[in-house]
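Its record is retained below.
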Amino acid sequence: MLRASVVPVVVLGAALGLTGCGGGSGGPAADGLSSTDTGTSVASSLGTNAGASTGNSTGGNSGTTTDTNVAPGGGTADSGGAGTSTTADTGISSGSGSNGGTTTGDAACPDLSRCVDFTALRIAKYKDNKRAAASYTFDDGYATSTAIGSIFEKAGLRATFYIIPGVIPADGWSMWQALRDKGHEIGNHSMTHPDFVNTVMSDQQLDTEINGAQRLIEQKLGIRPQTFAFPYHLYTDRALKVAQQNHVAVRKMNLGDPGYQFAFFDTDHGTDLAGTLVTVNRQLDEVVKAGGWFVAGGHGIDGDGWSPVTTEFLQKHLAYAAQYSSTLWTDTFANVSRYRLCRDTVKAEVLLQSSTQAYVRLTGTYDPAVCNAPLTVTVPVSIPSGAALHTKTADGTEVPNWVSAGTAFFNLRPGDKISLQVVPATKFAK
């Protein structure tokens, strides 16, 4: 339940965070991570002579796109006019656009460092180089959670459900297993939903409410909850420390990230549903503009649970959010939290480079048990006309990549490595 009209923020640190259902004072100040819109810059272990003797080139309209927030599967950029070009010693010239790349005079880029700027390897701020992120969370485990899940599934999305395992009857776990099997996150909302500030708890009681609840959910569903939400957004330093020890993320009131906004999906923090819808949509606009993280918190729908919204409310909001599909990454609270944590502890580096091939891997001081999902790597490229960027694993498995506005993107799991080559497009065309 929610208690006071306080807008919370999420923290990302050793464990990332944001507090549970409703308003409230929110406990201690933020101790998490913050990030900038430009993403995480990373250093290459190799230098590059790209541009070392490159002359200026001019030409007609290249047709290069300017939006770098393009997800995989986008088409090629519009071709510009052929133009005339002046070529320096490197032979780089301008011409018609091709997937946003810059045309060079070499057919297949015999010197890879002239086509791929490895000194500018970066990890994108959000998955698939999306500008902003959104997560939708629903507390207390009401019966209409299945209906909520269906609404998100029809939109091609997944939500996070924070459940109270200590009050779930023996025959009630199948509902949560079904939601979990469909890709929704099942999170930990404590064993019995206590007020962690105003309830006196022994160390054993605290462990039962937080870690015991996590163990019970794992026992019943076969998955270990990765995130925790404090009931009422209330917690002590002591309780927070316990929750952070075994959870990747904890919903928390403060982050210190101006791009983050928590949206209350209820009527307790507004006048009516119509007014609330206007408010949360405006918040989403602001988050996308700022390149931040939109986290919604609700309970049940259609008369079920504390201060419920309606099916229509969710459908209208998700329809509104769909306008940002090319720039907004919507995923569970755990998945976005994990990405935000790992992007700041992982770096991309070049392991080996010859004149025609390079190897890139993600390394760093990360926890492999946490950073086990792919991150999006970006690197500036100049792809010759009639050639293409080829990315594959050590065993030859193709790794999808896409190019937009002179930048290549591909997803790579921390600890893995891939090879990069620029080869004639027909060499590996299907």
